[in-house]
Amino acid sequence: MNIFIIGTEGSGKTVLLAMLCRYVATERNDIVLEPMDYAASQYVATALTALDKGDWPPSTRQAELRQLQWRFGLRGAPLSEIAISDSAGQDLRPILLQDDVASLTDQQRAIRQQIDEAQVLVYLVDLNGFLDSSDQTLLNERAWLFKTFLTRPAWRGKRRLVVLSKADLYKDLLSAQDQQENENVMVRDLIKRHLPKNYTLDHLVDGEASVSFLAVASVKTRTIILENGEPHRFPAHPLKPIGIGKLIDAVCVELAKNQNTASPSPTSGKVIGDEISGYEIGCFIGMVIGMIIGGFIGGGSDWLQGVGYGGVIGGVIGGVIGGVIGK
């Protein structure tokens, strides 16, 4: 199963992937999430080193695509291979917004193909980026990126998760909601209220029933006022996430669905697993019946000989009939 995480620069893709690994290793004994190669393990190690020092890890550079391979699944069960692709937010704009794939570069087309082929798409919504942006061009791009994610026809058949990143900034707003509402509704309504109104995004959010909404903070943050008077957010220690468990559970549900879809279905005349054909079953049943009938016909001292002849003849006839049924 392939997952592709979509998000603009600064939305938290790198931190999310790193903290997913730490969370599974420390909190989820029922789940296995392990890197398959050195590149993926080093990616996580670099990010966690920065976070442990109280700083943010370096974002994926522009024009760089990271293809991270993992094994993922329930502990004790067969593990699935999952490819998580990470690319810079700046690179995603033309890849997502351009309808004419032929106009993209070779690398951009490769990334677009990965998105199109993924079974699960995760979109990180950084509301803070929407609210703080005074650049109308940037605001327009971010709005259209989200709109494209919700409306592109080729993606509507996929499992799509909209993840409100940096959820610790909106903890009070989320907790103020009616506690009878589930998280999906609460997060969806919060996003609707804070998106730009001139792009009909709130209407689109309501119209996409196949999209689920989650709130995640990969790490809780602390705010420091810099010398110039501007606030700056840093990772708070100890590193504690919010909502990552629910994100993992949502992916596990999709993993189970994909495994069930990929499993072969039983066909007429075949028992999956033992692979006993209708021909073999017919031979066996016919042989038993033939042995019984042959024994009665042979009778007396010839009973065993009758059983043998009857078994052979009955087995052949039964095998032919069973073979026809098993096709």
Question: Can you offer a commentary on this structure?
Answer:
The two termini are 33 Å apart. Residues 264-284 and 318-327 have low confidence and may be disordered. The strands form three sheets. This protein has a seven-stranded mixed sheet, sandwiched between helices. It is globular, with a radius of gyration of 29 Å. With 327 residues, the protein is an alpha/beta fold. It has two domains: 2-262, Rossmann fold (3-Layer(aba) Sandwich), CATH 3.40.50; 270-326, no CATH class. The chain has helices at residues 13-27, 38-52, 89-97, 106-117, 127-132, 136-151, 171-175, 183-194, 201-207, 244-262, 278-298, 303-326, and strands spanning 2-6, 31-35, 65-74, 80-87, 120-125, 159-164, 211-215, 221-225, 231-235, 270-271, 276-277. A hairpin with a 5-residue loop joins strand 8 and strand 9. Helix 11 (278-298) packs antiparallel against helix 12. It contains twelve helices and eleven strands. 49% of the residues lie in helices and 18% in strands.
